[in-house]
Amino acid sequence: MTTYQNEIQQADSTLDRKGPSWGAINPEYVARMALQNRFKTGLDIAKYTAKIMREDMANYDKDAANYTQSLGCWHGFIGQQKMISIKKHFGTTRRRYLYLSGWMVAAMRSEFGPLPDQSMHEKTSVPALIEELYTFLKQADSRELQHLFKDLDTAREEGNEVKAKSVQEKIDAFETHVVPIIADIDAGFGNEEATYLLAKKMIEAGACCIQIENQVSDAKQCGHQDGKVTVPHEDFLAKINAVRYAFMELGVEEGVIVARTDSLGAGLTQKIPVSQEEGDLADQYNAYIDGEEVTSLAQMKSGDMLIKQGERVIKPIRLANGLVRFKENTGADRAVLDCITSLQNGADLLWIETEKPHIGQIAALVNRIREAVPNAKLVYNNSPSFNWTLNFRQQVFDAWLEEGRDLSQYQRNALMSSDYDQTDLSVEADNRIRRFQRDAAQQAGIFHHLITLPTYHTAALSTDNLAKDYFGEQGMLGYVLEVQRKEIRQGLACVKHQDMSGSNIGDDHKEYFSGANALKASGKDNTMNQFVVSS
Questions:
Q1: For 109-135, b where at least 16 C-beta lie within 10 A, e where not — what string?
Q2: Lowest-confidence range among 240-249, 406-415, 505-514, 524-533?
Q3: Among the four residues 97, 195, 196, 312, which has the most C-beta atoms within 10 Å?
Q4: Where are the transmembrane segments (predicted)?
Q5: Residues with Cβ < 8 Å from 345, sequence gap 6 or more?
Q6: How far apart are CA 382 and CA 365, in angstroms?
Q7: Which DSSP category does 215 fall into?
């Protein structure tokens, strides 16, 4: 028996038990509403999507071609339209996720207004956005199923049993728009208890994957800005434990933790951890602290401190604000140690924040990590903070220079110029950008590629283009040419915005509740009938 028929039968059985007083309730309508609301709670979503992520991770271990992707979304509607588009173009949502960017929450969702990525926004705005994203994704399910139910009704009215059977098979095989969200918890918004409490709220809202970074919570900086301060391993591992406890308390045993290290670009630490014995984590962390070797107490001043590094005793270099400096050129070593330590203590995936998109650099780090943890995998930020065009043109320039090619027509520092757009070098650079995710998955252990804040930029770009045309000489044609006509011809369901916002779903419900007395919005005078697009 089909899923759809099972739902109808279950509803019919319940109504039979309740007797004639429930006689106005149609079991098929109950089945439709149940199928349109498959996920009753955020925990249902977290458990479902955690299983998807775990399966995807296992499939990547078997074949690196099975890498996954996501785009950062700052509003539920943006996430919804992204997943609708993916289903339209590729027929499935498999291996495509959503990313919840702390940067975009700070910049676009705070009651304080636009803020920098420094954990100053309300922590409650993070689980609120997770819940919002899933609300919109569930509504996308409802809308698509509503169209299928209408197709089924039409086929029945026409007496077309073949079409009715085909539509019912589509209903039974329906693939949800609900996909995993990798959710950014920043540095935990406080101590380990604060991290645990916020992680619980995020999981209850539907998050199956939480990304946490090793910066100091109250001095957190964007990963692509200066002034980053890391914490000792013990502090970070306590927060990883806090997130794991939250997952397990809520019954999401398959929940995924992404441990992010900012050590590659961080030159400071807030505190010097206490070492219990030589070679322990604290001692390894302290080995990277920069300082002046002390051979006499006469070198000490009031307030100075000493630490032992192997056979040497040093006076750590401290800034005026008390922060302690790391030795130069130790970022890569510290990042590798961070990653190994995190994976050996409960994390599932890694995030190494880099300063440029360079496969060789990433692979060198991952290969070192895999000497200790062979199945280490990365989540990688394909960041808009990188100048991708210039970076890859310079990478090609350097590679060709090493090969001894004639580069006299190029100026390395001016390669961003449009003058170079049609040159062989730029064509090769664009090809490398096109292959970057595939090649990095194969060569550098990247399981998941994401862009943190793409929809921030696309919203700004599309608005700029529309404003330029609409308020200029194009007038209304600016909107028609660049928006509506493209929506219609590209088959964007959103062109029928009343349908997208739930008007037709509401009409169905009115008919369920009121029968022939229902006052519906989708009659012949609804101007949305001017648009014909695929569902």
A1: beeeeebebbbebebebbbbbbbbbbe
A2: 524-533
A3: 195
A4: none
A5: 237, 240, 241
A6: 17
A7: B
